[in-house]
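Students often ask why we bother encoding 3D structure as a string. The short answer is that it lets us treat folding as translation between two languages. Here is a chain of 211 residues written in the first language.
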Amino acid sequence: MQVEIWSDVICPWCYIGKRRFEMALAGFAHKESVQVIWRSFELDPDAPRQREGTLEEMLSKKYRVSLQEAAGMNARVTGVAREVGLEYHLSVARPGNTFDAHRLLHFATSKHLGDRASERVMHAYFSESLPVGDRTALAKLAPDFDIPESDAQALLESDAYAKEVRADESRAAQFGITGVPFFVFDGRSGVSGAQPVEVFAEALQNAWAGA
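And here it is in the second language, the structure alphabet:
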């Protein structure tokens, strides 16, 4: 059985959804027969490599709310993240364009290291203030998932895997996916959002029965 997961590395609910899905998969009787494929999705394809200002300021402008309300949004999602063992430091997050991060994840996937790479990049952004659009900073993470920093840097300085990122985004459009995280089971059924563990467990059971 195949599960495709569309997400963006700076989407706080994507990391929460990732962890909840993993918790459901860990308790699934047929987990060894499940292939998980991470798919690229850019929340803001036009974002600069590095945004000026804080994440709270960005959210305030995007959703037309006060800085206090934006801080409250971050506090709420941080609390939910903590419930699944994730530690968010959104007040010092450094958002930016994620296209290069997605290319690096495709490179890692080509070496069967996609899951480890996704985890490392997301943790770095949410917990370690990774400047997500900085190619050098991204390359420095690569040895943590067994890719030499020099190989990652060379990849990021090229245009390799750009087509693969765009293909993921085109496939998302074909499915009608407009927000992430989004989970597709065997290309037939989908689950939208960072649903409770029980919802993912049921989706796995139903997809297995359908297969």
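Translate back mentally: The chain has nine helices and four strands. Keep this in mind for the problem set.
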